[in-house]
Amino acid sequence: MNTPFIQCVQAENKIIWFWSDDFFKKQNANLCRWLDDCFRMATTLFELQLITTRLRNDKTRGYMINVFCSFVIRFLRKNVFDPLDELYKMEGKNLLTLQKCCMDLHAKFLKPLFRIANQIEKEDIIGGEFINFLFDQKALHENRFLTSILDDIISLSIERYYQIIVEWVSSCTLALDVGHEFFIWDLRKQNVVDRSSFDVTGKLDWSDFDNYFILIPQLIPVDFLPVKDQIFKFGKYLYTMRQQNAGLTLLSFHYSLEASVFKNLSLGKFCDKINELFEKCSTNTLEHFKQKYDIINFAKKLPSFFIGLNTNWIYELGELFEKNNFTNIDIEKLTSNKLNGLLTQAFRYAQLDTTMHYKYFELNISPFTKIKSEGITPKKGTFPALELNIAQNNHVLKLAFPAKILEPYRRVFFLLFVINRARYLVHMKFYLRENFNNPWAVQECATIYLFNRLINVYQEYICGIAAKEYNNFVKKLEKVKNLDELVQVQLEYIHIFMENAKLDQEYLPIRQLIEGIANQFCLYACNELTFFELNKSVSPFVGKLKTFSFNKSKSGGIKKSFVW
């Protein structure tokens, strides 16, 4: 209340204390100095109460922030208001005692709590980000009362996290996560709160699941970081099996999970428990894929499909493209039906259609190529980038063959397609004597021989490396116990293959130069270049190829391909 000497004015979200009588202030300098400390405490207390009120009224902030506000209010009642009431009731009130009490309350409790609450509001801190923030704040303060309240808030917040995790791993739903506090978001509830500043990860491999659920790195409590991927994939695997109508035998494991599984566990033991349960979940998912897709045998066949191991079906594909004159039509006319019709034919000619696995693939024009070449007919002899992918109607298989496995395979496939298409076109020009330039016959024969030698040795080198590692790869596949082991074994194989075949990022120039040489020979074979123009255009590629390969001390056997 205002008095004749002291006035209090509320302005927006703060209050201002001032002396209304300057003469009284001059006459009572000590009193004013003592009461200034009381005013400072009262201002902080008032603003802290305003912040907690706003935070509690903001329903988008979720359960954990509400818990924080409740604890702060309870703490103020017990440790601030009660001492002030006791001081007020004292007989023979002492201004020095009042000043000391206000200074202690302000320094020990109110100022730190105000800073914490103010930062939560200004930086829009929620969920796991809030838990991490409280851990950081706890480390900054030695006041046992303050650290005690932070401990209590952290414990309740983590308990809430446990409840949400149980719901997630048992049903792949997030009904308890009303305010998007969990580090996995259900985008179907996006209208509840807008947190557009967060980084989003997870939308990589499987569109169905990723259209609904995303992972927000900032919301992961630091102690949960070791198991964040397991928790995320827990839901993804369950979602997959439910969508695929997996048997109740496999799903009952999830449905039987209860909150008691994690009760009274330390964070370390909680992570151990998550790993234990996830291994079972991954095992069940692999079993489902075995039953529905014969997934182990499919994984064994991937090198045959993408690299042409034990078969040269990619040459058949290049031949079919030319026989059907697909090189010289608009990109937009290369429809999925046309591309996949040729793909099926190539598989059939190479006898890769003996099992159902060939049906799991589709052939596409690279989306980037469509953008770059929109409305343009490709130059005769050139061809846009092709991608061999898991078919869209079997995209669930990308759980077993994620982008980090398929992307290297796709790069190798397109490289082999380019050089095999060049082989076919040169064969048609030279050996069938179509438009053969007789005056340059000897030189042309020598050049074409060297080109064929280059790509034959290079392709044999690639396939030889793939075959060398293949038997060990198959043995490991037969021993996998869960879906994650299946992915890991494939990653090891593709990593060793790409490194030993000199197809990794370090040797990217070699791949690009060979593609460039092959494309020049395609133009020559399609009569877009004369033999003289071919020699002129290929010479820089050959020079760079020799320089790069011989400068690499670890090039090994691949050097044999480049001795022209």
Would you mind describing this structure in some detail?
It is found in: Cytoplasm, Cytoskeleton. Pfam families: GCP_C_terminal, GCP_N_terminal. Residues 57-292 form the Gamma tubulin complex component protein N-terminal domain. The structure is a single chain. With 564 residues, this protein is mainly alpha-helical. The chain folds into 3 domains: 6-123, no CATH class; 153-289, no CATH class; 295-562, Four Helix Bundle (Hemerythrin (Met), subunit A), CATH 1.20.120. It is 63% helix and 5% strand. It has 19 helices and 6 strands. It has helices at 22-27, 29-57, 62-89, 95-122, 127-140, 144-171, 207-212, 228-243, 248-255, 267-293, 295-307, 313-323, 336-349, 367-372, 403-430, 441-477, 483-500, 508-525, 531-551; strands at residues 6-11, 14-19, 184-186, 213-215, 361-365, 386-390. The strands form 3 sheets. It has a two-stranded antiparallel ribbon. Strands 3-4 form a two-stranded antiparallel sheet. Strand 1 and strand 2 (14-19) form a beta hairpin. Residues 370-378 have low confidence and may be disordered.
